[in-house]
Amino acid sequence: MKKINFSLQxxxxxxxxxxxxLVFGEAMEKISFLGDIFLRLIQMSVVLLxxxxxxxxxxxxxxxxxxxIGLKAIILFVITTVYSAVIGVFAVNMIKPGVGVIGxxxxxxxxEIFNIRIQDLITSFIPRNVFQSMxxxxxxxxxxxxxxxxxxxxxxxxxxxxxxxxRVVVSFxxxxxxxxxxxxxxxxxxxxxxxxxxxGSMGTAIIMPLLKYLFTMFFATFFIFTTxxxxxxxxxKVNPFRLIMKMKDTIIVSVTTTSSAISxxxxxxxxxxxxxxSSRISKLVNSLAMSxxxxxxxxxxxxxxxTIAQFFGIELSLQQQIVxxxxxxLSTLGNLLVPGGALxxxxxxxNMTGLPLEGxxxxxxxxxxxxxxxxxxxxxxxxxCTFYIAVSEREFDREIFDKN
Length: 404
Prior knowledge:
By secondary structure, the chain is an all-alpha fold. It is built from 19 helices and no strands. The chain is 76% helix and 0% strand. The termini are far apart.
């Protein structure tokens, strides 16, 4: 018998949860503890997962090989990721998918990150004691330490081909990844328990926010990639419609698989053989983008966190939403390539901001559909960043672009 894939399991769990909540009502609250267990299991491994993923990603970049092109790529990745998170904030404030839901009790804000001055906020990003940061689950401080650790490992490559500490981190990361994979097997049960409990207490009022959330995701995705497509096309002096057609195989694979990793070989092929980007630029920039450029995830996190805040009646100031942009950007580092990786990243972002983790159940129900928009934005922007760098480095073959 063929095994049902993870995404389909989540969709089935969501449908059954909504139906069960509508039929059995508040009686479904009796199984909500199963959802709470699922959330705790995710939290249990998140700190170590983030640390190993970032150290491995940053440490894998050899300084000598990295050079000007790699630095230019990272600057571009930061710009596009921040822009995506900002557009997400604008879109969710304009459409307001989580506002006005009847039957939800307002949640108390549990964090401290929002309630300090900007200067103190920036200072608070630097850990005094990384072990204390780990014990307190201070994700921003953990990410900052992990970046420095990864950079140090990268510099050690000048003396050693693969430092022992790097092999230890990679091996440890694989163990943590296996733990997360096993936890995610429990995701359909956890999401069913949480969402059926919410639906049981709210009834049909839960459905409209889910549809509005998806509309917000697709609207923002279209706006972002259209903006970048036009800007890069103008810079390279090519027809934007012709450029998007060059990426059609990449687009088809990304939409049908919702996987950036699976799309990568097709992505490189389109870059080199259809667009005319040199093999050197294509391999380096696309590989870096795989781990470090997650515009779709940044968009998902900014929209999801504010939707969850709206859903629970938590008012967010302009300063708080700026923090969410920073959190959404930082949470994409190390790009978690596991089933339900976006849900794990969402848990990280909610941990950072102190917003209710229970909101994951609401978003998880439609995350497979959101994943289409997320993956599409990831791969298109990866190709556009690679194309921009190729043109700037004069490693773009216009004859290949015009011929194919």
